[in-house]
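Recap from last week: sequence in, structure out.
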Amino acid sequence: MSSNVPSVPDLDDPATDPFDVARAAAEHIARVSGVEGHDVALVLGSGWGGAAELLGDVVAEIPSHEIPGFAKPSVAGHVGTTRSIRVERADGSTRHVLVLGSRTHLYEGKGVRRVAHGVRTAAATGATTVVLTNGCGGLHVSWRPGQVVLLKDHLNFTARSPLEGATFVDLTDLYSPRLRQLAHSVDATLPEGVYAQFPGPHYETPAEVRMAGIVGADLVGMSTGLEAIAARHCGMEVLGMSLVTNLAAGVSPQPLSHEEVLEAGAKAGPVISDLLARIVKLV
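Predicted structure tokens:
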């Protein structure tokens, strides 16, 4: 960055308020994009990257690592840019959508603050709604790769929280019933399920998958839950959407691989991108 850009507190410094860094990131996005505020944020997981092109006019595309608190993505299949997109809604109104392509996963070892930084930045830009997407393993054999599932709840198996200190946040209806109903208005066949977030980066064992199923999980993955908690803390309304990219360990007769996840996401990409774009235009 040039010398005339104000210095930003270190997000990794325990003495730093992470919301100060989020505000600095939002200011950078506004300065570079020329968009004063955003209405909706979209976090694109594995397989979901094509949705941005279907939303509307790209106002600005910013390398994420140039935004305070962000880094280049270290996971194949994730896009390293943040985009501001102008969306024309069916009622003639205009919305600005912030598409966060650079998601930080807990297993990258950068800390929970980095995991939550994307949604906190989105909230600082003015977004009141966030759509969190992911690619995940399914526990039901009837949900084949390519199936989209709406999240109705989650299980946090990371033993971590993005909240610090005595910060108590109610997570009842964390995944907005209103937004799920809106998604069903676009596709009434979408099933709903409970997502279990594991820390990763290793895939779950068959025993862990069985455990997750016993306590109520329908899906397993390595993202989304911590982001959703941070978003609720920021006062955002949350819609979670999972793409089943493979059957989970012990459910699938085949060994798991990241290549399988990417391949399933690529195959489903056009269909799920169109679905997501139609939903976002209604939010």
